[in-house]
Amino acid sequence: MGQAVIDRFKEKVWLSSPTIHGEEQKFVQRAFDTNWVAPLGENVDELEKEMAAYIGVKYGAALASGTSALHLALKLAGVGNGDVVICSDLTFAATVNPVSYENGIQVFVDCEYDTWNMDPKALEAALKKYRGKVRAVVAANLYGVPAKLDELVCLCQAYGVPLVEDAAESLSSTYKGRQTGSFGTYNCVSFNGNKIITTSGGGMLLSDDKGAIEKARFWATQARDPAPWYQHSEIGYNYRMSNVAAGIGRGQLMHLDEHRKRKREIYERYREGLKDIPVTMNPYLECSEPNFWLSCMTIERKLAESGKVTPEKIRRALDEKHVESRPIWKPMHLQPVYRDRDFVSVDGRDAGADIFARGLCLPSDIKMTEETQDKVMEIIRGCF
Ligand SMILES: *Cc1c(COP(=O)(O)O)cnc(C)c1O
Q: For the sheet containing 288-289, what is the strand order?
């Protein structure tokens, strides 16, 4: 099709950067006015209630990050030395690293092609293979697309293993009308700077189990026994969210649905605008409504394999024009640090490696104008 002439953008076009509205400042100001800049305080309490209500779970513990939420979820599941934790394979390392914090052993499960998330068939194979040794299953909703959650929940119940739902990327996505982050025994969301809403940095652990959330708050504040002096019967962490950060979160939460709508528009414009080249947008189930945190595409297999058009070529072409794009998460079983871990898939396939080899995350920043997105698509088309 030939290279269209697009000028280099003066301002970088981001994958996904924070979008701040103003209400955030009001809640932060309240923290300053009352001198509750730290620790904890009203904003933390309210954010916990507001998030839990939004997602439809009973309790939430506001934490320093999504990663700390995942860590405490695994502790609540009782993961210890040598326990097997079955994990999504195609995901960000933060989904699976906390297993190692507790000296557990990850077993990675391949994804399916309908949502790019944990394949229920492969999960079942892993549950059978490691029967009696599995302490938890950690499943992510990649790029905001809900996994086949009914099947995953059903299998976890059948094998009596708690599900930890990593909804870090999928806040506000729904599956059969129900919010993600509510399907696990323990659920984690992230408010990192690049996520759909942010607290500058933070996360939350959510559960219907009151005792579990209280225990998580206890661990997250250095595990202080109820004594006048500092006494500890357990190892604790400094994992709590600050009252200032929570103030940002309360303001952001007011705009979550608006962010999701914009993300969806961006995804649909890509789907429409790229339909004349051999690429496919990241798929989702009819019964789900993703938050479209990141729009992603895969290049048609033969073309990618021929090396004529690769994700890396497109990434470099975009980068030259000052546009950020990113390879699909490199599967965990291909990570050097996890080379000794087991990988379970069905029919000898490796869907994660295939999607990684052909896929690219596209700029999905909700401040991106239609004109900018059109130019981004023009650059992509020029690579074919
Ligand atoms: C961002 C992310 C996390 C970690 O969240 P942080 O708040 O950055 O610690 C975990 N899992 C997935 C899938 C993520 O994308």
A: 178-179, 174-175, 288-289
